[in-house]
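Sample pair:
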Amino acid sequence: MKHELFSGVCTALVTPFCDGKLDLEAMGELIEIQVESGVSALCVAGTTGECATLGEGEFCRLVSYTVEKVRGRLPVVVGVGTPSTEHSCRRASFASSEGADFLLAVTPYYNKGTSDGLVRHYHAIADAGDLPVIVYNVPSRTGVDLDVPLYRRIAAHPGIVAVKEAGGGYERLIDLISELGDRLTVYTGNDQAILTAMALGAKGVISVLSNVLPRETVELTAAAESGRLEKARELQYRLLPFIRALFAETNPAPVKCALELCGMISGELRLPLSPVGTELRERLAFLLGLPLI
């Protein structure tokens, strides 16, 4: 039976840093802005949260702080996927113990698991966390692409309830929703495809864009969900230049630059990421209508 999850916007939150350390004060301010803006859920320690650079202590502090700060006002999704099944399971168990609502598990990168190994990997995470799991497919990052037959095998576990699909194009979404839509809730991971994905039957977006423009992203998904397609088209096209700027260099460098320009975080990144170039910084400031700082 299909699990009904959140619909609309789940913001894939950045992780603020200051002088090499977690900036939880800034994180708290970001969370409050998101809650007040009407997003449906928050995701921490995902790709946009620079999960691969978080030490274990940092991961635990970030998750604990976020759950405590949100205080049940929104569902909290925690990114637990790593190249190691054992490590992913430990993170899943911790997120569950701290009161998270859902787990997001990216396909294990670098190792490029076999089909059988990927199925066992996801089932192990679902068992360890005892929370609903959202499978995250982003082949441009991981080198692994889940096709529909493999999704079907992974979804045989009752704890696997949803998909964040960020690869495979529209045909993949069509196949997923038509063949497994009665079993899995589908979200897009591509902000430029929110309207198209929702028109095909996706329930919303796990979004980078909404870090900076949460109200506008919520308005777009609400219009798409209610069938106001002309309004949704208008919003999607209006936001497209900014969305393209956010992905002109490796995420989350542009979105952190945009948040810094808005005076919300320091913009600090962890290597091997580095700050965006001057041209993109100026472009982001222009699109936001802000002075360059």
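The domain at 8-224 is CATH 3.20.20.70 (TIM Barrel).
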